[in-house]
Amino acid sequence: MVLQVYNTQTRTKEEFVPLEPGKIRLYVCGITVYDFCHIGHARSAIVFDVIYRYLLHLGYEVVYIRNFTDIDDKIIRRANEEGTDYRTIADRYIAAFYGDMDALGVLRPAMEPLATDNIPEMLQIVGKLVDKGAAYQAGTDVYFSVDRFEGYGKLSGRETEDLMAGARVEVDVKKSNPLDFVLWKGSKPGEPSWDSPWGPGRPGWHIECSAMVTKYLGPTIDFHGGGKDLVFPHHENELAQSEMAFGVPFVRYWLHNGFVNINNEKMSKSLGNFFTIRDVLKDVHPEALRLFVISKHYRSPVDFSDETVAEAERGLERLYSTLESVLERVPGKVDAQFTEDVLKKQDPELYEKAVSLPAAFRESMDNDFNTAQAIGYIFALQRNLQRFLDKFGRKNLKGAAAVLARRAADTLTGQCNILGLLTLAPGDFFETQRRLKLKSTGVTEEELNEFIELRHKARQEKNFAEADRIRLELEAKRIHLEDSPQGTKWRVSL
RNA sequence: GGCGGCAUACCCAAGUGGCAAGGGAGCGGUCUGCAAAACCGUUAUACAGCGGUUCAAAUCCGCUUGCCGCCUCCA
């Protein structure tokens, strides 16, 4: 089986062949640090986190780089609004970003370089382009000359004539071609600036990625990723300047994730319909958000709503619930040896599903990271496992049945871990989940425990009317009581 | 105006030529003092519409309709 990936540039799925056997160079465009991240950023981060985890799982050495754009117009504007400097703003939101990413369980890339730490490298590329006649100075700015790069438009599938015709931007008179883009921007008085052969200034938007890709990974890399909106102009321009400067292919496979929509409309700052990661995580468990994101193929748009997120939460609770049952019902040590045949006889379907899950999972993931399908297989095994557990009523499992249940649970957990799911002990998950959800009911844990205690007494006295009254009172607040042999548990409905 | 994507049950969502995965919700049942959870059963002669290719199409081709995105900062 081979990994197939959809390459934006060719618009087809291609067999993945790394530049260097066993090694993968992966670069993902990070964020511009001028505000808190929203769930669109979360989707991108989670999608590439899953891809990164999967490539590691396949046994590749993956060098994963994700940059921070820490100098740009929006950062400067924000600094001016707050009467502070760009560095303060950038550092604040870098810290916030790390907080969000850690909360989401996103693995850290090998390196997360800052644009401003790589200015000399950028100037080097600008110099190369000027020397080759592919860039020119106009006023205090330096522009890339799109006409000089034959392949311009090959990533986004556009013809330069089409772009010209549809140009919505006011044409900058300094440019010799309206499509030319700025490599180096002369700074206005009071703006942050760096010295350069073309005068004091700061980098244009695209040059930083070209510089950092080359510096940390080399002139040709395997994967370059980001949101769909970066295809044009950002990645198109990166590609143009890099290939012009270094004369070798820039990226072997371009990966772009789809958007998060709200009510079927793109979520964006300009539309004002966005949710920050930190706000969402106030009532949604990070693994539930992750499951929500990867329940759909990464290239498709995904609609974010209370309903769609709640579905993911319920699904995740189901998985953890089954795992919890296995922990409770299968004795701590399962050391007895049984032949495969004996295990299979316990429940042929469960046995078969457990044994075949890794292959099915891998086949899905090898097909352009089809996490949605992989999750389908995971739920199928979960269902079989739960069914198997239920066959034993409330009894603990013993012997071969215990071994089979344990093996199925381990397989489930193992595959989910590759996606960054089921990374917690079930007990810890449910505790966090209950605490998150209880906040929205206005009932404190102490109050709730008092209710449960009162009801417990009423039940002991066979005063079921009172017991049911308490149940109903709590249900009105979406708190459901579940009587079990281990005592009364509770959960908040989603 | 140019370029691109999507359309599968009540909802979400896989499927990319050979009997339509999975999840949620609903309904009926088992269990329960009553519940909940869980389990069992049930819910698409059918994949926007029309035409074509094929022994065979949700899957390939063409047209039509509807929605969305990019072309400006944007994950």
What does this structure look like?
This protein is α/β, with parallel strands linked by helices and 494 residues long. It folds into three domains: 4-280, HUPs (Rossmann fold), CATH 3.40.50; 306-424, Anticodon-binding domain of a subclass of class I aminoacyl-tRNA synthetases (Four Helix Bundle (Hemerythrin (Met), subunit A)), CATH 1.20.120.640; 442-492, no CATH class. The protein has 17 helices and 15 strands. It has helices at 39-57, 73-82, 86-104, 119-131, 160-166, 207-217, 231-246, 277-280, 286-294, 306-329, 340-346, 348-366, 371-391, 399-418, 426-438, 445-460, 464-475; strands at 4-7, 12-15, 23-28, 61-66, 135-138, 141-144, 181-186, 201-203, 221-227, 251-257, 260-262, 265-266, 302-303, 479-484, 487-492. It has a four-stranded parallel β-sheet, with helices on both faces. Strands 5-6-7-8 form a four-stranded antiparallel β-sheet, with helices on one face. Strand 14 (479-484) and strand 15 (487-492) form a beta hairpin. Helix 4 (119-131) crosses helix 6 and helix 12 (348-366) packs antiparallel against helix 13 (371-391). The longest helix has 24 residues, at 306-329. It is globular. The model has no long low-confidence stretch (mean pLDDT 93). The chain binds one RNA strand of 75 nucleotides through helix 1, helix 5, helix 7, strand 12 and helix 10.
